Amino acid sequence: MATTTARVIPEMHKPSISAQTVRNRLREAELRDCRPVVRQVLTRHHWQQHWLWAPTRRCWTRQDWQKVLFTDELLFYLPRVDVRICVYCRRNERYTEACTLERDRFGGGGSIMVWGGISQHHRTELVIISDNLNVVCYMEDILLPLCGTLPAASS
After folding, report:
1. CA–CA separation, 68 vs 10, rounded Å?
2. Contacts of 21 (CB under 8 A, 6+ apart)
3. Could you give the percent of the chain with pLDDT greater than 70?
4. Do 101 and 136 belong together in one domain?
5. Is residue 25 included in any domain, yes or no?
């Protein structure tokens, strides 16, 4: 990165600078290179669903929440090439927007889908999903077998 910067800067400014000078100035500014934190892109639909879901559960008690099984599935895309991207950030800036990288879905190296769930006192086994997941498969292959192994919620 410093070498690239040192090459580009002379085109913008007449005095030439070395890569070591760039590294020294970045260090003086307490900037260090690191991989950006990857975060999921949240769409307007995600935010709308959150605002519809949250208010109805605002007054729930601990007993109400103990009856809930939180589940999620995640599709991992395996990239073809692991390209290292570096950002420069100060010690406490790792999660600022400038130091994060939004990753949208991409293909190339295949994918794998997993599913899991947690509740107050339990967690499910991690389920590796080999086929496309639809509502019927989700109910018959994952939720219904699981409901028989978890304790029933008491009223």
Report:
1. 60
2. 6
3. 75
4. yes
5. yes
| pLDDT for residue 68 is more than 60 | yes
Count of structural domains within the chain: 2
Tokens, residue 150:
């978890």
Residues 14 and 38 in one domain: no
Whole-angstrom distance, CA of residue 123 vs CA of residue 42: 26
Residue 78 lies in domain = 33-147
CA–CA dist 23, 2 (Å, integer): 6
Write out pLDDT tens, residues 118-132: 988 888 888 888 777
Token pair 């400038």: residue: 98
| Cβ pair 95, 37 in contact under 8 A | yes
In the chain, what is the straight-line distance between the N-terminal and C-terminal CA atoms, in Å?
60
Tell me: do 50 and 122 sit in the same domain.
Answer: yes
pTM, two decimals, is 0.46
Dihedral pair phi/psi, residue 142, rounded to 5°? -115, -60
93 and 18 part of one domain: no
Residues 86 and 23 occupy one common structural domain: no
